[in-house]
Fold this protein.
Amino acid sequence: MRILLFMVVNLLATAPTLQAQQTDNSLPKKTLDSLGKTTVRKDSIPFHNPRIATRRSAILPGWGQAYNREYWKIPIAYGIISIPVVTFIFNNNYYKKMKFAYEARYKEAQGDNSDVSKIDPELINLPINSLLNYRNAYRRDRDYSVLFFLLAWGFQVADATVFAHLKQFDVTNNLSMQVKPVLDPVFKHAGFTLSFQLKSSNNRVETR
């Protein structure tokens, strides 16, 4: 009985200490810098994976931009992609009309005019050579629309990938650029120098 009472008292005495240690480990570490200001050191920086942005953009346009939290780019991505889609539909419709009209005129030249009445009214007066040229032109423009669609899709994938990499670009105070006036001791000429400095630091420091 005494042993059990001793264990309970010991547990109650050590519980506040364990709780304080756990709370202290869960909070950011605070230190004092040379100016006496309290600083908080972060041991880890959230990682932004460019591969996720690439895969999502390849699956669905704008998904990679949403992962990068650049939501304003989503309507731009769909606007760029919709242009070749609209031109493909337009050129494909006229290609079919021209193709049918050309074949109907060709059959008419062979003595079969059964399809002449089915030609689109706006094409009825075009000669067979013009129908052939228009058919080839619309087919060419239709194929170009497919190519532009693939390029537009690839462009939004590249955009999501590049800006996902830039999310990890270090723009903290550890990077610095200075322009300094200099005097050439040999030729006695004045000028300017552009210098870059990279301070070595393992942790980011936020001053509060």
Q: What stands out?
A: Residues 112 and 125 are 18 Å apart (CA to CA). Residues 47-169 form one domain.
